[in-house]
Design goal:
The protein is mainly alpha-helical and about 240 residues long. The chain is built from nine helices and four strands. The strands form two sheets. The protein has a two-stranded antiparallel sheet with strand order 1-4. The chain is elongated. The relative contact order is 0.12.
Length: about 240
């Protein structure tokens, strides 16, 4: 009966408890720890299978419904994929405990690295927020002020002098006029989420993405920038149609 966000919190809590137990476990109690880890792993694998199915189904449905994703749709997929990547890391850790890779057998440095897997905010997200210019709390205030201003002074749908993207045929104004734009913005917990998911119309770039770039944006490589000064719809995180 738990929602996905609550399940992620629950699984992370399980892993943290198992990790703390494995730090001080006695030799004669290792089997008990392995049994608890096995039970935890079974539940987590069941949820991972469900989450993978949800992501796949959502991408297929969106591809059928629209040729391009709205800001809110990108935020929904981003959150699902973030949960998916986080869950994969937790599953790997629990599998290690089941196989007998107990933290009490490791050096202090290696044990500390393993304990970090159970934290909510990864080091790459922390590095991104260090480049902020404003705190997450200040971002939330700015976000709410923007939403209030957008409601008081709505943009007019009539023509715009902004240049259209040669790929989506949209302008930046079109993005702001999306019916679910405000809902997508409300889903942004930090400026990191905003920068990662907000479509920005600008010069096209050729990017090389890897699976790791889903959780570590620093792994995205800029291969080249368009020589012709024509604008297109830019995304800073992978689209479901990216290969």
């Amino acid at each position: 009966s738990l929602v996905d966000s609550e399940i992620c919190i629950r699984d992370r809590g399980w892993v943290q408890q198992l990790q703390l137990s494995s730090l001080k476990v006695e030799t004669n109690k290792e089997e008990t720890l392995k049994t608890n880890a096995t039970i935890c792993l079974k539940k987590m694998l069941e949820y991972r299978e469900r989450l993978e199915s949800m992501v796949k189904r959502s991408v297929e449905e969106l591809n059928k419904e629209t040729s391009k994703l709205s800001f809110r749709q990108r935020m929904v997929l981003k959150q699902m994929r973030r949960d998916q990547c986080g869950l994969d890391a937790l599953v790997k850790e629990v599998k290690g405990l089941v196989e007998g890779n107990i933290l009490s057998k490791l050096s202090e440095a290696d044990a500390a690295k393993r304990l970090a897997i159970g934290t909510k905010v990864g080091k790459y997200h922390q590095n991104a927020l260090k480049l902020r210019g404003l705190t997450v709390e200040e971002f939330q205030i700015v976000k709410q002020n923007f939403l209030e201003m957008k409601q008081k002074c709505p943009l007019k749908a009539e023509g715009s002098e902004l240049e259209h993207s040669v790929i989506s045929l949209s302008t930046q104004k079109d993005v702001f006029l999306e019916t679910d734009f405000c809902e997508g913005l409300q889903m942004c917990e930090s400026q990191y989420d905003l920068i990662e998911a907000l479509p920005i119309v600008g010069l096209s770039v050729n990017l090389k993405r890897s699976d790791g770039s889903m959780i570590n944006p620093w792994l995205v490589q800029v291969v080249s920038i368009a020589r012709h000064h024509r604008t297109c719809l830019l995304y800073t995180s992978p689209s479901p149609r990216d290969s």
